[in-house]
Amino acid sequence: FSPQRMGRPKGTDLIWKALQLCKSDFEIIQVEWYDVSTNEELEIKKDLIKTKPPQVKLVPMIKREDMARYYNYADAILGNMRIGAYALIELEAINCKKPVLQYNNKKMKIFAGKKELESPMLPTSNDPEIIAETIDKIVLDKEFRENLLEKEIEFAKEISDPQKVAEWRDSFFIK
């Protein structure tokens, strides 16, 4: 399941290239959601539709209250492959106990309070070949999926624990 907006900032072009290289059999439910505020973005949308791989099934926008149902239906969640850091959909998916594939730029620093954390998310490269290998591993290897999810759950607890976040924000604003 890929609930994110489609476009270059989200790495949809990289995902499309990677899907052509995948060896496993699967389907991605992709929300049909684009930025189209400029002529360039409109052209990107047209190109994405024209080049959509056969593994991708487009669905209309999903109501917010229905998102958990989609997360729970999916075997894994496909996140951003360009930015290199997690966002809301990745945390939502992890909290629904679903493994997330999302490019993890190891040069980006993640802090929870004073503690620097290392994201377990994969892949650590946004090269389409590496993305394809990671997708195939998620699809074909149940143990890999479960181990990845376990690490992602621990990571999400560290960065999104309400008590820890509140303490960090209080400390930040006091200082």
Features:
47% helix, two-stranded parallel ribbon, 10% strand, single chain, mainly alpha, 175 residues
3D structure, described in words:
The chain is 47% helix and 10% strand. A two-stranded parallel sheet has the order 1-2. It has a two-stranded parallel sheet with strand order 3-4. The radius of gyration is 17 Å and the shape is globular. It has seven helices and six strands. Helix 1 packs across helix 5 (128-140). The mean pLDDT is 91. It is mainly alpha-helical and 175 residues long. Strand 5 (110-112) and strand 6 form a beta hairpin.
Brief write-up:
This protein is mainly alpha-helical. Helices cover 47% and strands 10% of the residues.
* Termini gap: 41 Å
Q: What is the CA-atom radius of gyration, in angstroms?
A: 17 Å
Task: Provide a count of the helices.
Answer: 7
Report mean pLDDT, rounded to a whole number.
91
Query: How much β-strand is present in the residues?
Result: 5-15%
Q: Segments where pLDDT lies below 50 for 5+ residues? A: none
Portion in helices: 40-55%
Name the strands of the widest sheet in spatial order. Answer: 1-2
Main sheet attributes: strand count, strand direction, barrel closure: 2 strands, parallel
Task: Please identify the structural class as seen in this structure.
Answer: mainly alpha
> Total number of β-strand segments?
6
N-to-C SSE string, H for helix and E for strand: HEHEHEHEEEHHH
Morphology call: globular
